[in-house]
Amino acid sequence: MTVLAGGFLLLTVLMPPAALLIFIGVMPTILAWIAEAPERRGIATAVGALNLAGVGLAVYFFTLGGAETARLPRYLSQPSVWVGMYGSAAIGWGLFLTIPPVIQAADRFRRRQRVAELRRFRRKLTDEWGHEISGPRHVSPETSDTVL
């Protein structure tokens, strides 16, 4: 964090318009970092990574034409600059909101498949060896779940 702050301070001294463009562009990342709660960690990382990619591209094209203060308002009046900076942050939000439920659904499916496979295996063993080997059913005192 200190390195980022030092780099931004150096950029502010060397190229103030580019530093202002970066500050305006990373606003979604700053807000995601503020809104991040312990149970929903990763928002700032997902949003920040893609947002910085969009902002980096905007700063690159801004400095190609000459990083002059007088040019910044005209550059920021182009909708493509805003779409590039904030659109990439929106993609980060979208990834953060959609990937965890997809992973949870896939994990739930995998666990259900494993339980069905184990039940088939148990049924096969019972058919082969008889019901005596399955043992009595009882309730576990710790979890109060039926243990087979």
Protein described:
With 148 residues, this protein is mostly helical. It has a domain at 15-96. 74% of the residues lie in helices and 3% in strands. The chain has six helices and two strands. It has a two-stranded antiparallel ribbon. The longest helix has 51 residues, at 79-129. The mean pLDDT is 85.
Order of helices and strands: HHHHHHEE
Q: What strand order characterises the main sheet?
A: 1-2
Oligomer state equals single chain
> What are the segments in which pLDDT stays under 50 over at least 5 consecutive residues?
none
* Silhouette: rod-shaped
Q: Compute the CA-based radius of gyration.
A: 27 Å
Ends: how far apart? 53 Å
Question: How would you state the average pLDDT, rounded?
Answer: 85
Number of helices: 6
Q: Sheet bearing the most strands, described? A: 2 strands, antiparallel
Our estimate of the beta-strand percent is: under 5%
Category by helix and strand content: mainly alpha
Write the layout of secondary structure elements.
Blueprint: H1 2-14, H2 16-25, H3 27-35, H4 43-64, H5 72-76, H6 79-129, E1 138-139, E2 146-147
Antiparallel strand pairs: 1-2
